[in-house]
Amino acid sequence: MDISNGERNRSLVQSALKNVAAFLNTDGGTLLIGVSDISEIKGLDRDLRYSHRNNRDGFEQKLRSLLNDRFDPVPYGDATIKFEDLPAGTICRVDVEPRESITHLDNEVFIRDGNRVKRLQGRELTDWIQTRNAR
Protein backbone atom coordinates (compact mmCIF):
# COMPACT_ATOMS: atom_id res chain seq x y z
CA MET A 1 0.00 0.00 0.00
CA ASP A 2 1.35 3.42 -0.97
CA ILE A 3 1.41 5.50 2.21
CA SER A 4 1.45 8.78 0.28
CA ASN A 5 -1.95 8.28 -1.34
CA GLY A 6 -3.44 5.24 0.43
CA GLU A 7 -3.80 3.27 -2.80
CA ARG A 8 -2.54 -0.13 -3.86
CA ASN A 9 0.83 0.18 -5.61
CA ARG A 10 2.37 -2.91 -7.22
CA SER A 11 5.67 -1.12 -7.86
CA LEU A 12 6.29 -1.16 -4.10
CA VAL A 13 6.16 -4.97 -4.17
CA GLN A 14 8.73 -4.98 -6.98
CA SER A 15 10.92 -2.55 -5.03
CA ALA A 16 10.81 -4.76 -1.93
CA LEU A 17 11.74 -7.84 -3.98
CA LYS A 18 14.64 -6.01 -5.66
CA ASN A 19 15.96 -5.08 -2.22
CA VAL A 20 15.78 -8.68 -1.02
CA ALA A 21 17.59 -9.87 -4.17
CA ALA A 22 20.24 -7.18 -3.76
CA PHE A 23 20.78 -8.13 -0.10
CA LEU A 24 21.16 -11.79 -1.11
CA ASN A 25 23.76 -10.86 -3.73
CA THR A 26 25.83 -8.52 -1.57
CA ASP A 27 26.24 -8.28 2.20
CA GLY A 28 22.75 -9.14 3.43
CA GLY A 29 20.51 -6.64 5.16
CA THR A 30 17.11 -5.91 6.63
CA LEU A 31 13.99 -4.77 4.81
CA LEU A 32 11.33 -3.09 6.96
CA ILE A 33 7.82 -3.17 5.52
CA GLY A 34 5.47 -0.67 7.10
CA VAL A 35 8.19 1.94 7.61
CA SER A 36 8.52 5.00 5.37
CA ASP A 37 11.73 6.06 3.63
CA ILE A 38 12.21 8.66 6.36
CA SER A 39 11.89 6.00 9.10
CA GLU A 40 8.31 6.78 10.17
CA ILE A 41 6.33 3.76 11.38
CA LYS A 42 3.25 3.49 9.18
CA GLY A 43 2.26 -0.08 10.07
CA LEU A 44 0.78 -2.87 7.99
CA ASP A 45 -2.95 -2.37 8.56
CA ARG A 46 -3.57 -1.13 5.01
CA ASP A 47 -1.38 -3.86 3.49
CA LEU A 48 -3.11 -6.63 5.41
CA ARG A 49 -6.40 -5.76 3.70
CA TYR A 50 -4.89 -7.09 0.44
CA SER A 51 -3.49 -10.31 1.87
CA HIS A 52 -5.19 -13.68 2.14
CA ARG A 53 -7.42 -13.75 5.24
CA ASN A 54 -6.46 -10.09 5.90
CA ASN A 55 -3.94 -11.06 8.57
CA ARG A 56 -0.22 -11.54 9.23
CA ASP A 57 -0.28 -15.18 8.26
CA GLY A 58 -1.77 -14.32 4.86
CA PHE A 59 0.74 -11.49 4.42
CA GLU A 60 3.65 -13.81 5.18
CA GLN A 61 2.26 -16.50 2.87
CA LYS A 62 2.02 -13.97 0.03
CA LEU A 63 5.57 -12.76 0.64
CA ARG A 64 6.94 -16.32 0.76
CA SER A 65 5.03 -17.16 -2.40
CA LEU A 66 6.66 -14.21 -4.18
CA LEU A 67 10.11 -15.34 -2.99
CA ASN A 68 9.44 -18.90 -4.15
CA ASP A 69 7.97 -17.96 -7.52
CA ARG A 70 10.25 -15.13 -8.61
CA PHE A 71 13.69 -15.93 -7.17
CA ASP A 72 16.18 -18.39 -8.62
CA PRO A 73 17.47 -20.11 -6.63
CA VAL A 74 14.72 -19.82 -4.04
CA PRO A 75 16.11 -18.20 -0.85
CA TYR A 76 15.06 -20.99 1.53
CA GLY A 77 16.44 -20.15 4.95
CA ASP A 78 18.17 -16.98 3.76
CA ALA A 79 15.22 -14.64 4.31
CA THR A 80 13.63 -14.61 7.76
CA ILE A 81 10.23 -12.95 8.06
CA LYS A 82 9.10 -11.60 11.45
CA PHE A 83 6.47 -9.17 12.65
CA GLU A 84 7.13 -6.59 15.32
CA ASP A 85 4.41 -4.82 17.27
CA LEU A 86 5.48 -1.24 17.93
CA PRO A 87 3.49 1.56 19.60
CA ALA A 88 2.92 3.24 16.20
CA GLY A 89 1.90 0.01 14.44
CA THR A 90 2.96 -3.47 13.38
CA ILE A 91 5.79 -3.79 10.88
CA CYS A 92 7.25 -6.71 8.95
CA ARG A 93 10.99 -7.28 9.25
CA VAL A 94 12.72 -9.33 6.57
CA ASP A 95 16.28 -10.24 7.58
CA VAL A 96 18.31 -11.42 4.59
CA GLU A 97 21.57 -13.34 4.74
CA PRO A 98 24.09 -12.97 1.91
CA ARG A 99 24.57 -15.91 -0.43
CA GLU A 100 27.62 -17.33 -2.08
CA SER A 101 25.64 -18.14 -5.21
CA ILE A 102 24.11 -15.47 -7.42
CA THR A 103 20.37 -14.98 -6.97
CA HIS A 104 18.15 -13.88 -9.84
CA LEU A 105 14.87 -12.02 -9.51
CA ASP A 106 12.81 -12.55 -12.65
CA ASN A 107 16.04 -13.51 -14.50
CA GLU A 108 17.76 -10.25 -13.50
CA VAL A 109 20.62 -9.62 -11.07
CA PHE A 110 20.44 -6.85 -8.48
CA ILE A 111 23.07 -5.69 -5.98
CA ARG A 112 23.33 -3.06 -3.28
CA ASP A 113 25.44 -0.06 -4.21
CA GLY A 114 25.68 1.99 -1.05
CA ASN A 115 22.10 2.70 -0.03
CA ARG A 116 20.53 1.94 -3.41
CA VAL A 117 19.64 -1.10 -5.48
CA LYS A 118 21.31 -1.46 -8.85
CA ARG A 119 20.44 -3.84 -11.70
CA LEU A 120 23.51 -5.28 -13.39
CA GLN A 121 23.71 -6.25 -17.04
CA GLY A 122 26.26 -6.56 -19.82
CA ARG A 123 29.88 -5.74 -19.03
CA GLU A 124 29.02 -4.46 -15.57
CA LEU A 125 27.47 -7.83 -14.68
CA THR A 126 30.44 -9.74 -16.11
CA ASP A 127 32.93 -7.62 -14.14
CA TRP A 128 30.92 -8.03 -10.93
CA ILE A 129 30.77 -11.83 -11.35
CA GLN A 130 34.52 -12.03 -11.96
CA THR A 131 35.28 -9.87 -8.92
CA ARG A 132 32.85 -11.85 -6.80
CA ASN A 133 34.36 -15.19 -7.86
CA ALA A 134 37.86 -13.93 -7.07
CA ARG A 135 36.96 -13.47 -3.37
Structure, explained:
The chain is of the alpha+beta class and 135 residues long. The protein has one domain: Schlafen, AAA domain (Methyltransferase, Cobalt-precorrin-4 Transmethylase, Domain 2, 2-Layer Sandwich), CATH 3.30.950.30. It is 36% helix and 26% strand. The chain has 4 helices and 7 strands. It has helices at 10-25, 45-48, 56-70, 122-134, and strands spanning 29-33, 71-72, 79-86, 89-96, 104-105, 109-113, 116-120. The strands form 3 sheets. A 3-stranded antiparallel β-sheet has the order 1-4-3. The chain has a two-stranded antiparallel sheet with strand order 2-5. A two-stranded antiparallel ribbon has the order 6-7. A hairpin with a 2-residue loop joins strand 6 and strand 7 (116-120). The longest helix has 16 residues, at 10-25. The radius of gyration is 15 Å and the shape is elongated. The relative contact order is 0.20.
> CATH superfamily name?
Schlafen, AAA domain
Average pLDDT value? 92
Strand/helix succession: HEHHEEEEEEH
- State the CATH class: Alpha Beta
CATH topology: Methyltransferase, Cobalt-precorrin-4 Transmethylase, Domain 2
DSSP helix fraction: 25-40%
Distance between the termini: 39 Å
Number of H/I helices: 4
Q: Give the C-alpha Rg.
A: 15 Å
Per DSSP E runs of 2 or more residues, the count of β-strands stands at 7
**Share in β-strands:** 25-35%
